[in-house]
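lol forgot to send this yesterday, sorry. struct tokens for the thing we talked abt
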């Protein structure tokens, strides 16, 4: 159903309350998501983005109940990923000749995914499209935020920035606007989205934010493609992005481990206790990888200044859960973070060395040779682990 957002602009997207995993199984979405599509009805009628493919028919049918599809003059595809372009094939069957405004790279991604020769109109940063009533769309390329094809579209006079994925959150709500939802939920989902999707592109984002500011666009609303529309103080999320894009960290040390017979777990808790004893201001959190959610843990890593990793030694190496998680952190290209390693072993004891090697390779500053102990930690060894934690806090 069409929901008005401002003047002649409406939301026509899909709220996906049941979504639990996104990007295949790569991203947990505890609070569902939305695929936001927008309809501009000025002298010209414009559709900005569509929805994910499973909702394509529903989307097009609903849209056809709201307007005669033949009245759509232009389609804007800000991004080719299937959660926004997935209804294009169903839509374009109904209006096959309608021009699709998108970047050069979006033509490649849309053709590559749908193998259709639609009526593409390539746009670059600064290109404008008159929509009547004195209003224009202005296009801003956003390459690698987060695909090469990404762009944003700005509607003059209404001063709405359709930012696509940027500034979004996987957050299902019927409320549409940022000021109408629980602020903790909203910002938890916004930072998780940044940490898990945008961290590798922080250096690109820093330049793009500066460029957008240099345009002096008056921005009264940021209409993202996931989650809420930022209408109350929309620049607050831009300011957050500016912080997050600058090698963000809080005063937090996070201990992450996996364990087989709880020896490494015991070390994790003693190290955390030591950190807390040595620094009463630092936030200390402990997570068992096997029992946690990887994307939530990535958000904790994003907030941390130091991450302490633990694994027992198995087959001269580490548990695959720890190896997989470090690989995920490497993909995300975290900067400005320290790391330390710990773990129990029975006989060969390579885990700590392996973790340190992988963490260094993932771009973390490895603090020392790590802490390892043979067999189950006795009281004396637990105290040494506690002292090791104190050392991490003081470093
Ligand atoms: Fe929400 Fe990159 O798609």
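and heres what i got for the seq, position by position
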């Amino acid at each position: 159903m069409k929901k008005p957002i401002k003047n002649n602009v409406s939301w026509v997207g899909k709220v996906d309350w049941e979504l639990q995993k996104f990007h295949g199984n790569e991203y947990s979405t505890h609070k569902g998501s939305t695929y936001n599509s927008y309809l501009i009805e000025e002298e010209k009628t414009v559709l900005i983005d569509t929805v994910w493919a499973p909702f394509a028919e529903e989307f097009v049918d609903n849209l056809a109940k709201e307007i005669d599809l033949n009245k759509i003059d232009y389609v804007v595809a800000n991004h080719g990923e299937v959660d926004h372009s997935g209804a294009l094939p169903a839509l374009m069957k109904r209006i096959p000749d309608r021009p699709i405004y998108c970047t050069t790279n979006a033509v490649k991604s849309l053709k590559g995914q749908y193998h259709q020769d639609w009526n593409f109109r390539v746009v670059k940063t600064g290109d404008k499209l008159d929509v009547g009533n004195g209003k224009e769309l202005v296009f801003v390329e956003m390459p690698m935020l987060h695909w090469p094809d990404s762009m944003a579209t700005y509607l003059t006079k209404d001063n709405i920035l359709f930012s696509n994925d940027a500034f979004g959150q996987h957050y299902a709500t019927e409320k549409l606007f940022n000021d109408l939802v629980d602020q903790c939920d909203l910002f938890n989902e916004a930072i998780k989205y940044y940490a898990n999707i945008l961290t590798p592109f922080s250096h690109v984002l820093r330049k793009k934010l500066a460029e957008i500011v240099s345009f002096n666009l008056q921005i009264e609303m940021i209409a993202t493609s996931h989650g809420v529309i930022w209408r109350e103080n929309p620049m607050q999320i831009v300011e957050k992005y500016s912080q997050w894009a600058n090698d963000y960290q809080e005063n937090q040390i996070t201990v992450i481990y996996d364990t087989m017979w709880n020896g490494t777990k015991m070390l994790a808790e003693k190290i955390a206790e030591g950190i807390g004893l040595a620094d009463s201001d630092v936030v200390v959190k402990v997570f068992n990888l096997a029992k946690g959610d990887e994307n939530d843990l990535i958000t904790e890593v994003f907030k941390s200044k130091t991450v302490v990793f633990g694994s027992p030694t198995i087959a001269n190496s580490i548990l695959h859960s720890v190896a997989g998680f470090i690989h995920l952190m490497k993909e995300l290209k975290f900067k400005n973070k320290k790391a330390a390693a710990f773990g129990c072993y029975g006989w060969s004891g390579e885990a700590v060395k392996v973790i340190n090697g992988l963490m260094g390779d993932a771009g973390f500053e490895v603090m020392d040779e790590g802490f390892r102990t043979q067999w189950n930690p006795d009281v004396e060894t637990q105290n040494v682990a506690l002292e090791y934690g104190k050392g991490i806090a003081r470093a």
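The chain has twelve helices and 23 strands. anyway ping me if u want another try
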